[in-house]
Structure of Peptidase C14 caspase domain-containing protein:
Amino acid sequence: MASKQQRCNHCGILLFIPLEVQAFKCSMCNGITHVQSPGPVNQAYNSLNHIAGLFRGFVNTITTSSAINSNSGNYGTNHFGYYLQPRPQRPSYPLNPPSPYGSKRAVLCGVCYHGRSYRLKGSINDVKCMKYFLIKEFRFPSDSILMLTDDKEERNPLKIPTKYNIQMALRWLIEGSKSGDSLVFHYSGHGTQEVNMNEIDHSYRYNNAISPVDHELKGKILNDEINATIVRPLPFGAKLHAIIDACHSGNVLDLSFVCKMNREGYYTWEDHTSSINHKDTKGGVAICISACEDGQVSVDTSALSGKEVTGALTYSFIQTVQNEPGLTYGQLLSTMRSTIHGTKTGIVTLNGPIASLLNRLLGLRIKQEAQLSSSELFDMYKKRFVL
């Protein structure tokens, strides 16, 4: 009987099934997979499932190996073939591992771009502070936090914030999420805008993007991809918070609603939904707190902490939440903006004589407006901030 290869949507194993089968039950995890008919949409869907199968190996490589070692006796080649054999220098992984991540997990990316003219000095400090903050203030389990940095002391190649590793980490963050889960994505690094021509009316628009450490070779990660990876799959009852400390990050998650708040704290919601290209969740709530408007830049600074260089957004976010327990989103955004507005000098984002000249100018202030965007409308002064 003629057969074809098909990957299980649940555990990722590659199986051989008859050509005419429209749905099959996986012999390993008992999950039901519906076979999609060929077509551009289904091909993309199948590609995503293929990627999901691949990154399960990535997850277990970057987490502790104790669960892997304890299950090492379950692997063999006689029945399962080469699909379950461990690759050299990469441990095997159980098909149905009990999730050690619980209902709270986070991906923290800090990119400082060593040796580049645009090097940042505070990004690694930012993610280290954020990890401590999540554990101490919101009881995130330490093993549920995946941290990617280009710290010179980092030896694990899968924990370097390359484009591929960030993509895999974001898929890990959303994979298997369910109602009641709290997910956090924190990025501290360079952000930019990419020109994109609208195919409908041939007008030009800008896409926000983040810059992995290898962006010059592999390219940037656009807001469309971030939205497709961690926003659209977000299930009902789950919540996602993104804290993006980067330039041009106003709506880097491409969310439906953007909060516009003035200096007095009054706000309105801008509707960014489009009947042509609507990007909603599956019922979950996604909220992004970003460093500045789409057309603004953000800074590294020592002026906030007094000695350590940090991102202005990251520091003001952590400080505000710690100092005002039980605050609302409106209070959070307003206080963060006041903290950044009141900061003078200490800017270290630029290098060379220009930076020296700017830092000598008395009265120099950081000019960036922290932003908030959301997948749904809510009252900023009634909804309390909780991770």
Residues 38-100, 345-364 have pLDDT under 50 and may be disordered. The two ends are 53 Å apart (CA to CA).
